[in-house]
């Protein structure tokens, strides 16, 4: 692999303005440490409202995006970096925005014939009607990460309460059919799927606490699926990645129903890189150390909108 950024000034963008600020700091700190230990000229940059001024002052030549949630994972920081002509890691503006809005992502999956759980959307102010599929129902805000604002409910009363809670995070909400079965994730690195991980939250639901508290979730690697299922799910994850136009490292979350049918729930264009994160676990199974993983992510950094386009 060519090390085009070996002697360049690297900025690791972390923190940000979303509800996932603290998790982003953990991701960014881990990525920064690995790059510095690998001999790269990397500095940490905490993202706030004056980020444009700070980026210009820092004179970085490439950005490693370690942000999560809004204003980091949704195409906004990517657009700023494009305007400043600073190459960056992860997906471009459009793919980031589409993946962040789970409703738009699901619509694209359906267009491409990719399986995703049945769902209904609720616009701002729209009262929830009983969905045309049986409970349990999963209520989600359209544009939040880390399972923020998500509820699993069993009846109409619970549905109404969950929708109100979800609207505290986003005016656009959707209700999804609950898939009973195995929760899986397929990381994509260098255009290929890494080993599939099975996620088993000890509390029964893979919520924010289960994601980021060590010991709250069992991660089974390799997943308890057949060799053919491993291959098929990896390919399905890759198809979802390409359908949204993703680039760089990403992670596709899926469920495998009790009947053996996979369903894509979402694509994370900036997956977490904390000590409990999934991509480093999958990479390690392939023999890729955390430091090597950071180097691969960095070396895929680029501008996605080339001069002369538009």
**Main sheet, how many strands, which sense, barrel?**
6 strands, antiparallel
CATH class of the largest domain: Alpha Beta
Shape: globular
Total of DSSP H or I helical runs spanning 4+ residues: 10
What is the CATH topology of the largest domain? Answer: D-amino Acid Aminotransferase, Chain A, domain 1
Classified in CATH, the superfamily of the largest domain is ATP-grasp fold, B domain
Please tell me the overall pLDDT.
91
What is the percent of helical residues?
25-40%
Low-confidence stretches: none
| Rg result | 19 Å
Q: Determine the structural class based on helices, strands and strand pairing.
A: alpha+beta
- How many DSSP E strands? 13
In N-to-C order, the SSE pattern is: EHEHEHHHEEEHEEEEHEHEEHH
What percentage of the residues does DSSP assign to strands (E)? Answer: 15-25%
Taken together, the total number of domains comes to 3
What distance separates the N and C termini?
Answer: 31 Å
- Please give the CATH architecture of the largest domain: 2-Layer Sandwich
């Amino acid at each position: 692999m060519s090390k085009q950024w070996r002697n360049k000034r690297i900025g690791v963008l972390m923190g940000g303005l979303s509800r996932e600020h603290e998790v982003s700091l953990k991701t960014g700190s881990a990525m920064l440490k690995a790059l510095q230990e690998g001999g790269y000229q990397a500095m940490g940059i905490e993202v706030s409202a004056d980020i444009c001024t700070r980026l210009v002052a820092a004179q970085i030549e490439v950005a490693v995006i370690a942000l999560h949630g809004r204003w980091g994972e949704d195409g906004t920081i990517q657009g700023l970096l494009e305007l400043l002509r600073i190459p960056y890691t992860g997906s471009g503006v459009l793919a980031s925005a589409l993946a962040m809005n789970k409703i738009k992502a699901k619509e694209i999956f359906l267009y491409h014939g990719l399986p995703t759980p049945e769902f209904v959307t609720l616009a701002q102010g729209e009262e929830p009607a009983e969905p045309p599929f049986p409970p349990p129902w999963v209520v989600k805000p359209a544009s939040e990460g880390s399972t923020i604002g998500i509820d699993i409910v069993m009846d109409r009363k619970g549905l109404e309460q969950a929708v109100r809670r979800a609207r505290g995070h986003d005016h656009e909400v959707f209700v999804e059919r609950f898939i009973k079965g195995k929760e899986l994730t397929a990381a994509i690195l260098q255009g290929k799927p890494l080993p599939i991980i099975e996620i088993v939250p000890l509390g029964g639901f893979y919520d924010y606490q289960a994601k980021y508290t060590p010991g709250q979730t069992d991660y089974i690697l390799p997943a308890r699926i057949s060799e053919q299922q491993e291959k098929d799910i990896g390919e399905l994850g890759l198809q979802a990645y390409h359908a949204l136009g993703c680039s760089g490292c990403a992670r596709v979350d899926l469920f495998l129903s009790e009947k053996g049918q996979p369903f894509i729930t979402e694509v994370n264009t900036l997956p977490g890189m904390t000590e409990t994160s999934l991509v480093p676990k999958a990479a390690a199974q392939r023999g890729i150390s955390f430091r090597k993983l950071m180097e691969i992510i960095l070396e895929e950094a680029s501008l996605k909108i080339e001069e002369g386009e538009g």
